[in-house]
Amino acid sequence: MLESLFVPTLIVALAEIGDKTQLLALLLAARFRNPLPIILGIVVATLANHFLAGAAGNWVAGLFSPLILSWTLAASFVAVALWTLVPDKLDDDESSSFKRYGPFLTTLIAFFIAEMGDKTQVATVMLAAQYPHFVLVVLGTTLGMLIANVPVVLVGNFAAERLPLTLIRRLAACAFAALAAYACYQALQFGGQI
User: Fold this and answer.
1) What is the pTM of this model?
2) Which parts of the chain span the membrane according to its record (predicted)?
């Protein structure tokens, strides 16, 4: 049961380092210089976004046989592992158009939008499809986002400049590859049960 919490936490925390939402957190921290409303905005936006993503993953899991779901998850985890190796860039207008709403609302809107179609949202869909405890998956992916983003908000550019982003991206890709291998193992265990 705790695997449904800890694996998503670790996967998303690793995948989020160097991600565009982490860059967005850095920009928001520099712009508003008020960490608490930014952190609260990240929490609310991530819970809402990942709840929707987790619900989608949970729903998809019920549509397919365990064999087809396992092979689909394996292929998806491989794709996200490769995607994780590509550094993210933040579009200038992604954070600038909402500044007039204050730190909490700006962060809430910007983070929710930035997470749409992002690798951590896709990972949340896949993890919710793989693990049976939907709420724990959503809490785990949200916790992973906070582990990666709260330090950036609190210490700003200091931490971001000193992190070995290439190494961290590679570790995250390896974690997704391990999940792909596990999904393949599960598919082989299901054998011919379509």
Assistant:
1) 0.72
2) 36-57, 63-86, 134-155, 167-188
